[in-house]
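ok so I'm stuck.
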Amino acid sequence: MHICYNKSMGSKSATPRQVLLYSRPGCHLCDDAAELLERLAQRIPIAITEVNILGDLDLYERYKHNIPVIALADGRTLAAPIRADALERLLVEL
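replied:
not stuck anymore, here's the structure
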């Protein structure tokens, strides 16, 4: 697991939005999604947890053909290909 949150963001009352990134090693699209989330974390208070699907058989079966998958706390998900504009819009709406 990897957690990223920019604590210098905005006001102290801003609660970071929980974001899960389902990925696996060697997935360049997963690397791209992680970089995109880290860039967005500079402007949007998000707490990113990266989960390797190879560590959980159920997650592997669920996401093996769809990674990267970004799951938000409210149940919404985005799967590859992940567009920066769509992800940012989703995060701001949370």
